[in-house]
Amino acid sequence: MRELIEGFPRLAAIVEPLLSVRRVMRQQFAVLHEMLLDTVRDDPVCRRLMTAPGVGAVVALTYRATVDQPQRFVHSRAVGAHVGLTPKRYQSGEIDYDGGVSKCGDALLRTMLYEAAHSLLTHGRQWSWLKAWGHPGGSTARGTSSHRRGRQASGRGSSPDVGEW
Hints:
Layout: H1 9-42, H2 44-49, H3 57-66, H4 77-83, E1 87-92, E2 95-101, H5 107-123, H6 129-134, H7 145-157
Antiparallel strand pairs: 1-2
Helix pairs in contact: 1-3, 3-5, 5-7
């Protein structure tokens, strides 16, 4: 980049500080990333969570921080409700149907689980029971409603049994 701005002193005066800030930010990011990985490596619960396909260090640590005391939940299904991954229900007279997820609860963990499920369904090359379960009817076409439902279902299904901690 510096070679491109050698003949332009005004542009160099603008870009040089930006490049210095970028370099410092990348160094600090590397330090913080290493601290994150050290934290996850030392925690057996996070290591166990990362054995699930699609779950990385950030998702595992977010889950661990949100479900800090698993004894609060009687069943593992209650974690899904706590995060807001339970389906909405509409009932009126003879009408009774389930809607999308309720989105009540911890938005960060819900987003992380959704991203992990999306990663599993779109980038995972290995077969896994969770990926097979997330593709209802075997449809793998991206953008289809079944693919969207699969990501939501995998997000709910990837929540581990909290009683195992």
